[in-house]
């Protein structure tokens, strides 16, 4: 049973949510009986190590680390210049100097090393499949590996690579799409579960649009051995995002989210706002360069209380999130 392997009280994983998770939040999820997950996507090796150590100080329970499979972006100076120009009005409105220099640093090897050195037992991956060498290294150190897939083809590739389990990310999911094959597909979760169940032998973890007890039960009855939940936990007291962001989740209505590349250069689902609308047809630099170009815009917007230029990732069913309280009180409603 996957739950036994994950060593969690409930067959529920807290979605990693890079840039959102803090040690306090991960520990609260772990102590509430979920498998807590560190979203290490934006951290380097040393920061990943420090984060893991902070979590270990606060809990003895197991938790996972999620890494972004890194690819070196092709830097096209002309595209970069056009992307900067598209962002210029936002820099001006916020009183910021435009970001002049963007450098993509290799951090993946250091992150993997941090996972091994800190004896983390579960490591999940987004944006692709790590090399056979990395997977072999992790296996030699007893690390249980979980891939992310948005199609049957991707799920089969995750299994063929020798990974232990797969997160099936439905089109409803908030945050970055875990896609790594073209074209981008937004397959509803239950359709995806139907397509994949029985076609792969490794355990399936369902993700995307799961907010209520009924959603979780349905996913577990549809071929998933566990579920991964993110949006419903954003409003938890222990989640250290801005009040602007929490209020946006609680006030969201049906069909208010959109898929955008504008903030990071990779497609991600979040609340539609002025930034996503104005950037709809603009030139966007490839990930992670666009992420670097927009970092100061997002930070300054949060400081100024301007929700219109913030990346507020949330799933398509965010309008069903009504309960803000402790992580434990949110989890209790699922049981």
Automatic annotation (TrEMBL):
<dbReference type="InterPro" id="IPR004136">
    <property type="entry name" value="NMO"/>
</dbReference>
<keyword id="KW-0216">Detoxification</keyword>
<comment type="function">
    <text>Nitronate monooxygenase that uses molecular oxygen to catalyze the oxidative denitrification of alkyl nitronates. Acts on propionate 3-nitronate (P3N), the presumed physiological substrate. Probably functions in the detoxification of P3N, a metabolic poison produced by plants and fungi as a defense mechanism.</text>
</comment>
<keyword id="KW-0503">Monooxygenase</keyword>
<comment type="similarity">
    <text>Belongs to the nitronate monooxygenase family. NMO class I subfamily.</text>
</comment>
<keyword id="KW-0288">FMN</keyword>
<dbReference type="GO" id="GO:0051213">
    <property type="term" value="F:dioxygenase activity"/>
</dbReference>
<keyword id="KW-0223">Dioxygenase</keyword>
<dbReference type="Pfam" id="PF03060">
    <property type="entry name" value="NMO"/>
</dbReference>
<keyword id="KW-0285">Flavoprotein</keyword>
<dbReference type="GO" id="GO:0018580">
    <property type="term" value="F:nitronate monooxygenase activity"/>
</dbReference>
<dbReference type="GO" id="GO:0009636">
    <property type="term" value="P:response to toxic substance"/>
</dbReference>
<protein>
    <recommendedName>
        <fullName>Probable nitronate monooxygenase</fullName>
    </recommendedName>
</protein>
<dbReference type="InterPro" id="IPR013785">
    <property type="entry name" value="Aldolase_TIM"/>
</dbReference>
<keyword id="KW-0560">Oxidoreductase</keyword>
């Amino acid at each position: 049973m996957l739950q036994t392997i994950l060593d969690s009280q409930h067959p529920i994983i807290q979605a990693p949510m890079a840039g959102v998770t803090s040690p306090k939040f991960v520990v609260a999820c772990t102590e509430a009986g979920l498998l807590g997950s560190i979203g290490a996507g934006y951290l380097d090796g040393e920061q990943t190590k420090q984060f893991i150590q902070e979590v270990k100080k606060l809990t003895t329970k197991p938790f996972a680390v999620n890494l972004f499979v890194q690819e070196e972006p092709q830097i096209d100076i002309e595209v970069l210049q056009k992307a900067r120009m598209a962002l210029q009005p936002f820099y001006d409105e916020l009183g910021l100097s435009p970001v002049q220099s963007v450098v993509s640093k290799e951090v993946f090897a250091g992150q993997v090393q941090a996972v091994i050195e800190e004896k983390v037992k579960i490591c999940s991956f987004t944006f692709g499949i790590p090399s056979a060498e990395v997977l072999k290294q992790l296996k030699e150190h007893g690390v249980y590996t979980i891939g992310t897939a948005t199609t049957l083809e991707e799920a089969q590739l995750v299994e063929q690579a020798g990974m232990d389990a797969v997160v099936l990310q439905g089109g409803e999911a908030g945050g970055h799409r875990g896609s790594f094959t073209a074209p981008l597909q937004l397959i509803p979760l239950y359709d995806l579960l139907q397509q994949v169940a029985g076609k792969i032998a490794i355990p399936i973890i369902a993700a995307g649009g799961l907010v209520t007890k009924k959603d979780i039960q349905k996913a577990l009855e549809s071929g998933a051995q566990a579920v991964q939940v993110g949006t419903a936990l954003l409003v938890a007291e222990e989640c250290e995002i801005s009040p602007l962001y929490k209020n946006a989740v609680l006030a969201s209505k049906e069909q208010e989210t959109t898929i955008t590349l504008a903030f990071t250069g990779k497609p991600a689902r979040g609340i539609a706002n002025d930034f996503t609308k104005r950037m709809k047809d603009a030139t966007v630099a490839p990930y992670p360069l666009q992420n670097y170009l927009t970092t100061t815009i997002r930070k300054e917007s949060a400081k100024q209380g301007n929700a219109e230029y913030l990346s507020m990732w949330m799933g398509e069913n965010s309008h069903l999130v009504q309960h803000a309280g402790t992580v434990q009180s949110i989890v209790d409603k699922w049981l």
